[in-house]
Amino acid sequence: MSDKAELALVSDFLAECLPFDSLDPQTLEDVARQLRIKYVRRHHRFSAMDGDGLYILRSGVVDEQQESGLLQRFESGESFSLNGHSRDGEVTQSRYFVAIEDCLIYRLPDDALRSLRRQHRHIDRFFHARSERLLRRAARFRGQPSFLMQPVTSVMSQQPLEVAPEASIAQTAQAMTERRVSSAFVTRDETLLGIVTDRDLRSRVLALRLSPDQTVASIMTENPCALASDATLFDAVLEMTNRGVHHLPVLGEAKQLLGVLTTSDVNVAREDDPIYFVQRVSRLSSLTALQEQLARLPNLFRQWVEADTPVTQITQMTTAVSDALTRRLIDLAEQSLGPAPCDYCWLGFGSQARGEQLLGGDQDNGLLIDNAATDDDMAWFAQLADFVCAGLNDCGYDYCPGDVMAKSEKWRKRAADWEAMVDGWMTSPSASAVMHISIFFDLRAIAGSRSLAEALQQHMLAHSQRNTIFLAALAENVLASSPPLSMFGRFLLERSGEHQHSLDLKKRGVLPVIELARLHSLANGIPAVNTHKRLQALARAGQMSLADSRNLEDAFTLINGIRLQQQAAQIAAGDEPDNYCDPRQLTRLQRSHLKQAFRVVHQAEDIIKLRYRAGN
Amino acid sequence: MSAFCQALRLQFKRYQYRRRAARALRDCWQLSPPCWQSPARDAAYLAIDLEMTSLDPSTGEVVSIGWVPITHCEIDLSAARHHLLRAESLVGESAVIHQLRDCDRVGGEPPAEVLQALLKAASGRVLLFHCAELDIAFLNALCQTHLAAPLLLPYVDTLQIEHGRRERAHQPVRNGELRLADCREHYHLPAYPAHNALSDALATAELFLAIKSR
């Protein structure tokens, strides 16, 4: 007899690795069954002798190097191959791999990998990003909503070339050449009559020696297949493969021509797949290139929102982008400054740490440095921090107005000094200390030594849990940013300033939930940082009823969802995304949902008053 | 005990039991690798872990067995197995540790069948344990009941190896410091949830590879 998931230890890990994350549990278990495990000691240099197939790093760090230097670094969960399955298919003889730390490696042998690629198109796609047969594969692939579920209207080329049916073939061909397009649409009174493509000019005119003075109507394809404006990219790709066409007109409700979608538009859309986006960030080698890449993020974000990607996935993806950017900047800094003189950890605070980043956020970060660092070493880290923070700022993550950044000396310390500072905050919780704590307790290792960050987090948890004075101060802070509902259940709007008559969804909606979850987690020694995970852990630990925890999760998702939609709309309108929303612009359903979400938060706050507030 | 002494003792015992021992066990002895010296560099191993109802082989019972082979310095997950054994008595207190209740064990397999499968997997391999003494005692008792002789197969013990290594390096070893999880941490291996026979066998196998890489 055997359990269903005997190798859960292995398959659970695979489930968090690209591209295996998209496989179902049974397939994952099958993949786990085909793995070999090897241990590779630090400094070991890999060669083809070490075996074929795909190497998935379970733990440790491996560098891919070339005579000229470091090509890329692989960490736990990432995979590489000694013999060519690299994701863009380039095989360079002179590259080699070196273990930077002791590594535990899962090896998926070549034949197992091949059969997996045969059976799962998106896995194949992952290893063969630039294949020409992309379209056919994409059509069969439904795994990732972000790419194929977006509406065609966000991808199509607008203002297609329109010609009258009386126009001559020559005129049409000239117009196509001038506009540099490969198709023209024959219309009368905004009604689409037919389509003419480059191919038609070749096969129906030149090959038949037809006179170019004939009307375009005589050679057009009448009633071409078209897409409705609410069709998804998936529908489009399917239509293209089924009918063997490369151009699809997109029609509005009154059958008027809105735009055209071509195979190359589909290719461009694919480039915006979050995986490729993150991957490219981690490979670009200049600040300008990174800046250009990150400038594309708002539009990408908008596409994700429009494709109805779940809120938590979107925030996860935006966080993955900022993580990748931070790591890349650190790599670039190390390339010019030389390697780090001692162990360190780049910390992300706040929303980046929680994996809940949206657009338009500031950077909140710090540097945690090994106690062994000398004063000279500290100077190195100051340079590193300046470089990375400036890079983040250039790429759209503005300097933190409160100076919570590694480039400020206060947030760049040795481990012992961090602990002393935290202890200080907790013994005398002034208003600013409470604010610092609330930023600081949401902490995640972005790059460098994870264990340093974990030790610090353990220290904080151990000290905060029993500290009632501190918890009371924190509770006071939570109650200060109460959700904006009046006694009569109406929205309380900002009274003054630039955003008069609007709701601050972040401060009044999202933050209270985050702070609630944080307070309860600190009080109960729960190390999770992500708000959903905190709420789930609280329910599991019996510190919050399952119903309360789920309600808060729902409220959180809902408020964040409305926030996302607002931001997407702002981007579409060419405005800077922010967190304000005018309740009058919401649909009735959204308004009532939002009110309900606020009520859930209100109720949860009442519990806090009873439990943590001193003398109440 | 040196490899030579262990081998000598095994050979002698096998000789004692040569008539009584069941066929399957004798076949396994035949195929077991020569054990007069330390195993060859790329010898084949089988990492094994047992979960039992008590620490005393005379009263306790084996609840589950997990094993995973090492071939050419690689762990082969395709041959990893986890077997629940049918209860011969109640599980008792340690069920709390292993999270196996009596009702779970009703579906378990007859111990004799699991033993056959184990012998098949072990043939030609050196057995591998972390803290072998206890597991070997339970395996011997099981074999004694179902195959009429103790197991009598050569084995290595990661705890002993690590203990010896630290002594040679003049690092004092405190009591309980060489538990599986602690040893793994020393070699920068990831933390695993303990107390599942297969994951402990896997954890032991990985530890062994790490130790051997030094």
Summary, kept brief:
Chain A is α+β, with helices and mostly antiparallel strands and 616 residues long. Chain A is built from 24 helices and 21 strands.
Folded structure, characterized:
The complex is a heterodimer of chains A (616) and B (214). Chain A has 24 helices and 21 strands. Chain A is α+β, with helices and mostly antiparallel strands and 616 residues long. Chain A has four domains: 8-128, Jelly Rolls; 148-270, CBS-domain (Roll); 311-460, Beta Polymerase, domain 2, CATH 3.30.460; 475-612, Four Helix Bundle (Hemerythrin (Met), subunit A). Chain A has a four-stranded antiparallel beta sheet. In chain A, helix 5 crosses helix 9 (233-243) and helix 21 (505-523) runs antiparallel to helix 23 (546-572). Chain A is globular. The relative contact order of chain A is 0.06. Chain B is an alpha/beta fold. Chain B starts with a helix and ends with a helix. In chain B, strands 1, 2, 3, 4, 5 and 6 form a six-stranded mixed beta sheet that branches. Chain B has a single domain, classed as 2-Layer Sandwich (Nucleotidyltransferase, domain 5), CATH 3.30.420.10. Chain B is globular, with a radius of gyration of 17 Å. Helix content of chain B is 43%, strand content 15%. Chains A and B meet through strand 1 of A and strand 3, strand 4 and helix 9 of B. Strand 1 (36-40) of chain A pairs antiparallel with strand 3 (74-76) of chain B, so a sheet runs across the interface.
Number of domains of chain B: 1
**In angstroms, what separates the terminal alpha carbons of chain B?**
22 Å
- What is the CATH top level name of chain B? Alpha Beta
Largest sheet of chain A: 4 strands, antiparallel
CATH topology of chain B: Nucleotidyltransferase, domain 5
The average pLDDT score of chain A comes to 81
Strand arrangement in the largest pleated sheet of chain A = 1-7-2-5
H and E string of chain B:
HHEEEEHHHEHEHHH
Please name the fourth-level CATH homologous superfamily of chain B.
Answer: Ribonuclease H-like superfamily/Ribonuclease H
Radius of gyration of chain A, in angstroms, nearest whole number: 28 Å
Helix- and strand-based class of chain A?
Answer: alpha+beta
Which bin fits the share of residues in helices of chain B?
Answer: 40-55%
CATH architecture call of chain B: 2-Layer Sandwich
Report the biggest beta sheet of chain B as strand number plus sense, adding barrel if it closes. 6 strands, mixed
**CATH architect. name of the largest domain in chain A:** 2-Layer Sandwich
Give the terminus-to-terminus CA distance of chain A.
58 Å
Compute the CA-based radius of gyration of chain B: 17 Å
Low-confidence stretches of chain B: none
The assigned structural class of chain B equals alpha/beta
- Please, what is the oligomeric state? heterodimer
